[in-house]
Every structure is written in structure tokens, then in C-alpha cells.
Amino acid sequence: MRAPARAEESLLEQLAARRATAEPEFLAAQRRAAAEAFARLRLPTVKHEDWKYTSLAALAQIPWRAAAPASLDAAGLAALTALPAAPRLVFVNGRYDFRLSDLSGVPEGVFVGSLADALARAPEMLEAWLGRRSRATDHAFAALNTALAVDGAVVVVPPGVAVETTIHVLHVTVAEEPIAVHPRHLLVAGPGAKACVAEIYAGHEGEYLVNAQTEVYAGEGAEVEHHRVQLDGANAFHVGLLEVEQGKESRFRSHAFALGGQLSRLEARALLGSERADCTLEGLYLGRGRQLHDQLVLVDHASPACTSREMFKGILDDRARGVFAGRILVREDAQKTDASQVNSNLLLSDDAEIDTKPQLEIFADDVKCSHGGSVGQLDETALFYLRSRGVEAPVARAMLTYAFAAEVVGRVRPVELRSYIRRLVATRLPHGERLLEAI
Amino acid sequence: MSLLKIEKLHARIPDGREILKGLDLAVDAGEVHAIMGPNGSGKSTLAGVLAGRESYQVTGGTVTYAGQDLLAMAPEKRAAAGVFLGFQYPVEIPGVGNLYFLRTALNAIRKSRGEDDLDAMDFLALAREKMKLVKMDPSFMNRGVNEGFSGGEKKRNEVLQMAILEPRLAILDEIDSGLDIDALKAVADGVNALRSPERAMIVVTHYQRLLDYIKPDKVHVMSAGRIALSGGPELALHLEEEGYGWLEKEPPKQAAPAAARTAP
Q: What's this model's pTM, rounded to 2 decimal places?
């Protein structure tokens, strides 16, 4: 085996230095297996099929340290991003911060809290779910996350309970030196339950690595909405894994916004494990400077009559790069599958680049599957239309660029979250600040 | 002095073909000119060149507008100076509100005239008043620019924009295409309400029908990139009877064409 890179050296040291703490045996066993797996797997290189277009060479050269506890006052937080409305769980450098958090508005019987707290107080609530769908032994980042996670958000909604309010999970990283944090989130919606969660990631300008993993379980007939807003600092690396398992006739919607960081990898894997489940995965990635935004999506149709919809859009400026790899797997038993995937990209500069790779693997015969997409520039006629009305060229370009993104932003259902994302998106577009009153 | 004076204008479209081949035209303030002609004669290219469409390349000639060199101005500067193009195919821009778009356009033009911005409330009042003119449902204001509009609604929206921006020179490119008779009347009423001694209009159309509702002062027939024939409103009626076929046969210099062939 090759000599470990600097990042691997320090991560392996952290894995070796782990001490058995007072945690449930099921988790301790997962952590041991995950630590062994990482020692074997190491960080993926571009030879790995899933990392073909995304090199981790820079990440591999940084001696990542474990994050020490840090605190942040409200003013320090406000400088990074707006504090979302309650209920909210706030994590600073991977640890729950009860002073910044606010759990008012959580209905009775619903658990909303930190993972560390849930493990201490109610491990039996987590045992059936935590790690169930994690690829802790065959995915380097899932392994690292499983072995090294300190904390994260846990939301457990009992059967038949509808939580109408959005539960916000804000993860902030403040790094004086290169640190790696491994937030671990779990969302369980019992049969007939309803939940809506928004994960927001923000942080300082320093180098840090966020390696997040979220597991979502939607029981029979459950309705779950999930949002990820990645606006980490300009020098951050962000790897986010979303693992979803859906029960019969459940509905799951995911909206992922990749905005920040120097390198961002957002993965989503949905297992449609029971019939007539309905899954929507949507995303928007905005790249500028030398940012790299990579999205890897797998929808696994393992049961009959399930529906999946994917829509991912990218806007790439300067020398930014985008990657979209979307795989739809229709297993033999998954008759009457209805699956579609669209990936559209807008390139605002000659030096911007997109690698898009749809992949359909169909083993059933009675299915409806489609994929499509486009790579293009701003429409010259539309630009002329706006300019002929007196709108200055830069504003006209901003309007059209925003219009391209608006479809994805518009799918976010919670009104406040949508307008928050709108502003984030608009202000990241060239001359977008002049659009703010428009949208 | 004419408000608009075009002399020996030559222009190419993106594929390199020369479409305008030495066109001359003068339009005075207060006049409505109709430009007719068969498909491919250069009507829409002329409209695009006057509004500043950058993909059209002007290769010769001059265009003077209110004493200025129009061809040297960017499209938004032309708009600010009072030039308006009503599009044959108005563009849909989902995600950008119609109301915001119109206010941005109006304020850009007001700014260039040295006037203050109109605030949201004042603008809304103005927009409501102008919408009555084209019989447009106020709910359209809250939608994206032309998003999901029918053909007729898009054309009403064009006339609404003209009514709000109050141009000195309005060029309406096939504003009648794809309209049923009710929509055509609404659009024509809107246009007629905007006729004024200070304003010139160029109405580009393939069909005489529009001119039953918008009475032109002058009618021009384009053929092969030039004005082949000019006359009064009676020329349009003649074209209705004779079609454009005769143009290819012998481009006449005087009023009554000798030979006639039925247009396709």
C-alpha cells in the first residue's frame, strides 16, 4: 500500500488515538469497523470511479486536526450567516451550542436535540437507525464520519405526528488552523409522520474540512422535506453524504444548494425500498473563482411503482468547475418505475467547465425512465430584449442568470427559508446585488 | 428635420447573408409608417438593427435619430433616448417579476432623462392605469416576464411596456402575428391611444389587416432589402388585393404596379 498522504497520516493518528468512551456498544462496534475500513480504504484518488472528475490532491496534503471545542457569540455568528428561526440546533466546530440553539416550537413527543445528548439519554431510540444505511465500511468519508463524529442533530418524529415548522440545523466552523469536523445527523419520520429539516453550513475563511453525513428514514406514508445549504468559507472543503431510505408510499424531497467552499462534494443516495414511494432530489450549484462543485446522486429503485424526479442546475463563472453524476438504478422487481433526471448548466465564462454524466441501469422491463440536460450560455435574444427596454447589460445578465436558478430556488416550500436562499443565490451572481429587490 | 433618417443602410445577419441592401427611410415626429413586404424582405432585420441587436452587423449607411448617430449607441442607450422595439416574439423570463422588470426599465430611462426614480407605489398606480389601456388582467403583473403568457397576452404586454416607457420612436415588429381579432383590437386600441404629435411609429406587418385598425400615414413596401415602393394608406389596400408576387417580377418605382400575381 502507498505511503499515507499528510491528511491520511493525521487522520489515521486520530483514529488510533480514539479512546473507548461511555457510549453504547452498537456504536462502538460501528466505530471500530469504520476505523479499520478507513485504514484500508484511504482517501479516494481520481482512479476511483466516483472521484474521476474531482481530485482530492489538495485536501490530502493538509494535516487535518481534530476540532477543539470553540465558542461563538451571536455577533460572531451573525458575521457568518443569519441565525435561522426556531426551532434551531446550532453546532460550532461540530459540537452542540445550547446558547445559540432554540428548541421552542417543537411539538410534544418529537425528539429534536443533539446526537451526543440522545446517545446519553435514549440510546435505544437510535440503535435501530443510526448507521443503518451508512456506507461506513466501503466509503472513506462515511468511514471517517462514523469513526470520528462527535455530535450532530437528531430528529425523531413519532408515527402520525406532523411537524409543520421547519427544524433548522446550523453548522458553523471557525478554524485558526486546519481542522476536520464530522457532523452526523439523523432524521427518522415514523409511519404517517411529517417533518421538514434544513441543514445550513457556514464558516470562517480559514482552511477546514466538513465531512457531514445525514441519514433519513421515512416510514410508510411519511412526508419528509430536507434542505442542505452549503455556504462554507472560501477555503473550506465540504463533503456531505445524504443517505435516504423510504418506506411504502412515503414522500421525500431534497433541495441542495452548493454555494461556498473551494471544493464541495454533495452526495445523495435514495433507496426506494418499498412500493409507491415518491422521491424528488433537486439541487443548484453556483461556482465562481476556482471553486469545484461536485454532485453525485444515486436513486435506487428497489420496489415497484416508485417515482423519482431529479433536477440539478449549475451556474459556473470564472474558472469554476462543476460535476454532476446521476445514476438511476432500476432493479428487477421495480416494475412500473417512473424516473426522470435533468441536469442543466449555464456557463458564464469560457474558462468554466462542467462534467455531466447521467447513468441509467435498468433491469426491469415495464418502466418509464428519462434523462436530459443542457450546457449553454445566456440567451442572446433574451439579453437583447432586456437591453432594448433600457436595462443595462450587467443588470440584464444578472436577471437572466437568476432566472435560470429561480426554478430550483422556487421549489423550496418554507417561505422564510426560500427568501433566505434567494438572497444567498442572488448575491453570489455577477451584479446580483442589484437584483435583490426584484426577487 | 426628420426624427429618424435612414440612408443607404446595409446589414448582415449572423450567418453572413446581407439582408438590408441600401435602405432609405425618413420618419417625422407625429407620423405612423407601415412597413410591409413578403417574408425575407428584411422587415424584422430593419427593426432589430434600429433597436441595436448586436448579432446584426451593419456594414454600411447611416441612421440619424433626433440628430444623433443611432448606430453608435448601445441598445439600452437607444431605449433611454426614446427608441422602443415591440418584439415579434417577446421573450419569457421566468423568475424575474414583470412588475420589477417594467419598473427597472422605466427608472433606467427616467434616470437618463435626469428624472427621479418612481417608487414601487407610484409605479404600481401608473402600471394599473396603463393596463386598462390594453385590457390586461392585473394578475399578470405578479408573474415572471411573459412567463406562461399566451401569444395575445405577450403582445399586450409589449404595448403595455410601450405605454409605460412612452418612447419617441416606437417600432412594432409584427405586433399582429398570432392574434385573434379581439386581441388584435385591444393591441391596436393601445397603440392608437399612444399616437401623438411628438411620437413616431413604425408598424412592421405582413398583412393589411392590422392597418384596418392602425391607420398609417405612409405605407412602404420592402423587397430584397430596400424600400421598393412608398405611398399612402391606399397602397396597403392594393397589396391586399394583389399580394407581393409582382415585386419579384419588376420592382416598380411608381405608385401603381403594372403586373400582379397572387401571393402564396
A: 0.89
